[in-house]
């Protein structure tokens, strides 16, 4: 058995945390041979509720769960961490402007970025799920200049998985038969789900589905799925978001399948005309903890135009947090 890896999870008393922690402890994220130490960060008011979650983690008697610690101190949470899953974020309250939300989360993610730089393991990898995820990742990275930019990522895997599910339902192909889906841009309603390179079984997706369906059903359904889940469930998507967070880290560490890729928000070096330094979703292949953006794909004009709009939104968010002083 290997030495345990410390996985720091923020917001562990929340909805996603309640699903995510159990999947990590079960070995779904880092594999069946990798013991984990869970270090859970919460705000002080949520620590009593978190104790109940810890009781349930113990009661599950997970063979791979080496230990569980809780804290409201980021420097304790990230000490020696090999993975940081930044899930906890300030939700948008009544009457809160988007700029208020960016400011509240700017404070959280820059403090956590600093604590990661000072305390985490040399090979730390960071996954931001808490919204606005892409810009929160940018803020955390700016606060941790000594950590390579490639180690910061944000979650667009839920959007990617939703896109696969929609295409599977439309074509009757099991999800396992669908490869090369892409979600470009920001994790927001401007995201660009793109099936123009997807393979369904042995066929090109574009040979199986009509353009009108892609434009009028597929893309809007994927982009607005979060709101649809809230409308139906009376609460936001949590189990699927936790599952996607597990998928994201597992792909990153254990690699994408040959002839497939996944979607991950990572720091751009200018690929596909996404300005350098923005955290944007791209198709990536992964192996042993490293990712690389799939290059040389030809974008349909419509996709390229939608990506430009999503990137404009990311740039706007970057300007707002820069004005608030969070980018140094
Ligand atoms: P939730 O409100 O149930 O839980 C959030 C938890 O974070 C709470 O327990 C809260 O006390 C904690 N928290 C707040 N500030 C914190 C801080 N500074 N340090 C540590 N913990 C802190 O929310 P839920 O449903 O678990 O969602 C979490 C985040 O994930 C939200 O921002 C949500 O918008 C986002 N999300 C992202 C998705 C994606 O695909 N990227 C999909 C679904 C949700």
Automatic annotation (TrEMBL):
Q: Which InterPro entries match?
A: L-lactate/malate_DH, Lactate/malate_DH_C, Lactate/malate_DH_N, Lactate_DH/Glyco_Ohase_4_C, Malate_DH_AS, Malate_DH_type2, NAD(P)-bd_dom_sf
* Catalytic activity, as annotated: (S)-malate + NAD(+) = oxaloacetate + NADH + H(+)
What's the domain of life for this entry?
Answer: Bacteria
Q: Tell me which Gene Ontology terms the entry assigns under biological process.
A: malate metabolic process; tricarboxylic acid cycle
Does this UniProt record's set of keywords contain Cytoplasm?
no
Q: Catalytic site residues?
A: 187
What EC number(s) does its UniProt record assign? 1.1.1.37
A molecular function GO annotation:
L-malate dehydrogenase (NAD+) activity
Q: Which residues form the Lactate/malate dehydrogenase C-terminal domain?
A: 156-322
Give residue ranges for domain Lactate/malate dehydrogenase N-terminal: 7-149
- Name the residues that bind NAD(+): 11-17, 105, 112, 129-131
Q: Which residues bind substrate?
A: 92, 98, 131, 162
Q: Which UniProt keywords apply?
A: NAD, Oxidoreductase, Tricarboxylic acid cycle
Summarize the protein's role: Catalyzes the reversible oxidation of malate to oxaloacetate.
- Name the family the entry cites: Belongs to the LDH/MDH superfamily. MDH type 2 family.
Q: What is this protein called?
A: Malate dehydrogenase
Q: Which gene encodes it?
A: mdh
């Amino acid at each position: 058995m290997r030495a345990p890896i410390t996985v720091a999870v923020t917001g562990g008393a929340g909805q996603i945390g309640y699903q995510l922690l159990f999947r990590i402890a079960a070995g779904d994220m880092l594999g069946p041979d990798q013991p984990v130490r869970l270090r859970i960060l919460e705000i002080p008011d949520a620590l009593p509720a978190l104790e109940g979650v810890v009781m349930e983690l113990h009661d599950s008697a997970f063979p791979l769960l080496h230990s569980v610690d809780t804290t409201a101190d980021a420097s304790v949470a990230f000490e020696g961490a090999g993975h940081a899953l930044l899930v906890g974020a300030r939700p948008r309250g009544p009457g809160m402007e988007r700029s208020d939300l960016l400011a509240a989360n700017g404070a959280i993610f820059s403090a956590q970025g600093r604590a990661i730089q000072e305390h985490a393991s040399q090979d730390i990898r960071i996954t931001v799920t808490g919204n606005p995820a892409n810009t929160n990742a940018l803020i955390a990275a700016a606060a941790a200049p000594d950590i390579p930019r490639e180690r910061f990522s944000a979650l667009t895997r839920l959007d990617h998985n939703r896109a696969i599910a929609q295409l599977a339902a439309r074509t009757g192909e099991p999800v396992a038969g669908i490869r090369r889906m892409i979600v470009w841009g920001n994790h927001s309603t401007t995201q660009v789900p793109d099936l123009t390179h997807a393979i369904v079984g042995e066929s090109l997706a574009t040979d199986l589905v009509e353009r009108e369906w892609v434009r009028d059903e597929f893309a809007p359904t994927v982009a607005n799925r979060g709101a649809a889940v809230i409308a139906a469930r009376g609460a936001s998507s949590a189990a699927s978001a936790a599952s996607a967070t597990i998928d994201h880290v597992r792909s990153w560490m254990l690699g994408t399948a040959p002839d497939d890729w996944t979607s991950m928000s990572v720091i751009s070096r200018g690929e596909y005309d996404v300005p350098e330094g923005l955290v944007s979703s791209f198709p990536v292949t992964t192996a042993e903890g490293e990712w690389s953006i799939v290059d040389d794909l030809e974008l349909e004009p419509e996709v390229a135009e939608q990506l430009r709009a999503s990137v404009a939104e990311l740039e706007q968010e970057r300007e707002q947090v820069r004005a608030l002083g969070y980018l140094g």
